[in-house]
Specification:
With 353 residues, the protein is of the alpha/beta class. It contains 13 helices and twelve strands. Bound molecules: nicotinamide-adenine-dinucleotide and thymidine-5'-diphosphate.
Length: 353
C-alpha cells in the first residue's frame, strides 16, 4: 500500500510513519510536512534510509505542491495528521490553526477529490465534543461543542471532510482520538512539558486547580487504530479512539514527580487557561465492536516508558527547547498573567461592541 502521510514529522505522524515502515510488508510512505516549530526530522532518523520513505518539505495548503505529489505518487490512501495542534498557541495566535486546520484541510480534500483517492483518513480529536460533565462519555453522534480556536478549527475540518463524503462520495473516515502521550512529543503539551521540567528540577505549571480530566492514549495504540482504519474502517464513518484511562491533571503531575524523584514543591498553580475544558471523555465502543482494536498500553507502563525515553534523549529535548520554544515559554508562562489579560481584554472589547 502507498500512503501519503501529512504532518509525518510531528509527534503522532512520525510514530505512524515509523510503524507503517516497520511492518512485515512495509507501506511506501510519502511524507508531506511543512516543518513548523513542531515538525522535526530527527523524529524520522530511524527510517530516513528506508527506500520506502520519501520526505517532501511542503505545505498542505499549497494546492500545486499537493497536486504534484498526487500526480507522481497516486497513493492508495491519505492519512492526514498535519495541523497546528496546540490549544494554548491557538489562544494567543488563532490564525495558524485556521490556515492549516481549515484552509489546508480544504486544499487537501479538493486534491483528493480531483485525484479520486481511494481512502482519506482525517485524524481528529475528542476536543471537538467540548467539556463533558461526569459521567457522560461522547459517542460519535454526540454534538460538537468546541471551546478553543484549536478545537473549533478541528471541528470545522471534520465537518468539511464529512461533507466531501456526503456530497462527492470521497471515501473519508474521521477518527477522534483522546489525548496522546509517548516519545517524541513536543514539550508544550502537558506530559512532556512536566517530564522535562521535572528532570531539570524546574517549576511544574499547573493551570488552575489541576482537577481537569483527560483520557490518556499511548501514541502507538493510536497509530495501530489508524492502521486498522486503513483496512477495516467504513467509509463515511466516524470512530472515537480512546485510552479508557481518565486522570485529573494534578494526578498526572504527581506521578511524574514521583517517577523522576523531584519534590512536590515544584508544583506551581498558575493562572487558568481561558475557556479551559474541564473534562474530556469518550467511548471507543464502536471501534472495538467493529474491528477488535483495543488500547494495549496501561497508563502506568506508558508513562514509565515515556519518562525513560525523555531521560535517554536529553539532546533531543535540549534542541527542541531552544530558539522559538523559549519565546513561547516566556509568553505562556513567565508573562502568563499579562499575556492572558491582553487576550481577555480583546474578549471584553468584542463583548462590548
Ligand atoms: P504535532 O504538532 O506534533 O505535529 C504536527 C505536524 O504537522 C508537524 O510536523 C508540522 O510541521 C506539520 N504541519 C503543520 N502545519 C502544516 C502544513 N500547513 N502543511 C504540512 N505540514 C504541517 O501534532 P500531533 O500531536 O502529532 O497531532 C497530529 C494530529 O493528531 C493533529 O491533526 C491533531 O489535531 C491530532 N490529534 C492530536 C492529539 C494529541 O494529543 N496530540 C490527540 C488527538 C488528535
Ligand atoms: P495539553 O497537553 O495542552 O492538551 P489539551 O489541552 O489539548 O487537552 O493539556 C492537557 C491538560 O493539561 C489541559 O487540561 C491543560 C493542562 N496543562 C497544565 O495544567 N499546564 C500546562 O503547562 C499545560 C501545557 C497543560
Amino acid at each position: 500500500m502507498k500512503i501519503l502521510v501529512t504532518g509525518g514529522a510531528g509527534f503522532i505522524g512520525s510514530a505512524f510513519v515509523r510503524m507503517a515502515l516497520a511492518k512485515a510488508e512495509p507501506a511506501r510512505v510519502v511524507n508531506l510536512d511543512k516543518l513548523t516549530y513542531a515538525g522535526n526530522l530527527e523524529n524520522l532518523e530511524s527510517v530516513a534510509h528506508y527506500p520506502g520513505h520519501r520526505f517532501v518539505h511542503g505545505d498542505i495548503g499549497d494546492a500545486r505542491a499537493v497536486d504534484g505529489i498526487l500526480d507522481d505518487e497516486k497513493p492508495d490512501a491519505i492519512v492526514h495528521f498535519a495541523a497546528e495542534s496546540h490549544v494554548d498557541r491557538s489562544i494567543f495566535s488563532p490564525s495558524p490553526a485556521f490556515e492549516t486546520n481549515l484552509r489546508g484541510t480544504f486544499t487537501l480534500l479538493e486534491a483528493a477529490r480531483a485525484h479520486r483517492i481511494p481512502r482519506f483518513i482525517h485524524v481528529s480529536t475528542d476536543e471537538v465534543y467540548g467539556s463533558l460533565r461526569a459521567p457522560i462519555e461522547a459517542d460519535e453522534d454526540f454534538p460538537l461543542n468546541p471551546s478553543s480556536p484549536y478545537s473549533a478549527s478541528k471541528a470545522g475540518s471534520d465537518l468539511l471532510a464529512r461533507s466531501y463524503f456526503t456530497t462527492y462520495g470521497l471515501p473519508v473516515i474521521i477518527t477522534r482520538a483522546s489525548n496522546n502521550y509517548g516519545p517524541f512529543q513536543f514539550p508544550e503539551k502537558l506530559i512532556p512539558l512536566m517530564i522535562s521540567n521535572a528532570l531539570e528540577r524546574r517549576p511544574l505549571p499547573v493551570y488552575g486547580d489541576g482537577m481537569q480530566v483527560r483520557d490518556w492514549l499511548y501514541v502507538d495504540d493510536h497509530c495501530r487504530a489508524l492502521m486498522v482504519m486503513l483496512e477495516q474502517g467504513r467509509e463515511g464513518e466516524i470512530y472515537n479512539i480512546g485510552g479508557s484511562r481518565s486522570v485529573p491533571n494534578i494526578e498526572v503531575v504527581q506521578k511524574i514527580l514521583h517517577a523522576t524523584g523531584a519534590p512536590d514543591t515544584l508544583i506551581e498553580h498558575v493562572e487558568d487557561r481561558p475557556g479551559h475544558d474541564r473534562r474530556y471523555a469518550l467511548t471507543s465502543a464502536k471501534l472495538i465492536r467493529e474491528t477488535g482494536w483495543e488500547a494495549e498500553m496501561s497508563f502506568e507502563q506508558g508513562l514509565a516508558e515515556t519518562i525513560d525515553w525523555y531521560r535517554q534523549h536529553a539532546g533531543w529535548i535540549e534542541r527542541v527547547k531552544s530558539g522559538e520554544y523559549l519565546n513561547y515559554y516566556a509568553r505562556n508562562y513567565d508573562n502568563r498573567e499579562a499575556e492572558l489579560r491582553k487576550a481577555s481584554s480583546a474578549r471584553e472589547r468584542t463583548k462590548a461592541q
